[in-house]
Amino acid sequence: MKEPMVRTGTAAAPQTAEKVSIYGVVAEFESPEALLEGVRAARALGYDKMDAYTPFPVHGIDEAMGIRRSRLGWIVLGGGIIGAVAAVLLQWWTGAVASPLVVGGKPLFAFEFGLPIIFELAVLLAAFAAVLGMLALNGLPRFYHPVFKYSRFDRAADDRFLLALEANGAGFDAEQAAEILKSAGGRHVEVVTE
Fold first, then answer.
1. pLDDT tens for each residue of 145-160
2. Engineering a disulfide at 79: which of 55, 72, 86, 126 sits with its beta carbon 3.0 to 4.6 angstroms away?
3. pTM of the complete model beyond 0.90
4. DSSP for residue 74
5. Nearest to 30 by CA among 157, 159, 154, 153
6. Phi-psi category of 169—alpha, beta or left, where left has phi over 0 and alpha has psi -120 to 50?
7. Residues 57, 132, 79: CA angle, nearest 5 degrees
């Protein structure tokens, strides 16, 4: 025998509380030197997933955060080599295979005459590789990021330096991360949700 269904509350009220996912902890620093100290303090305590938001490039922050050199140069080099090889093959195929025509006693394919085309196609494909590689490596286009919920995020483009310690799994303790940032000189420390 079925038991009757009993409704409590209104239809608009949720019956279960959703678990809030934490993105990380964000703090504001007064100067680039203070930001570097905050990065070093967080790295010394084992935080390796972090990001800094600054109004201008800060010298030494890459090393302090442990960021490796970009792979973009290799992607651009690959695009340039593909462009140069494609230009040589295209000129050889059109001049010597598809329509062999001797003009003025010149050979069907000569590398020297194609140098401008080889250069231009190498530069073109290297430029495409640079733009597309940069977009792919940066995860762009990205129209939303959880750090935008930080109440003072707009100051990062003006005169403040922000450090975000990102949650890196179930062992992330937001309170401990907030204390680390406060002790390193961070102000306006906030826990940011996804």
1. 999 999 999 888 888 9
2. 126
3. no
4. H
5. 159
6. left
7. 110
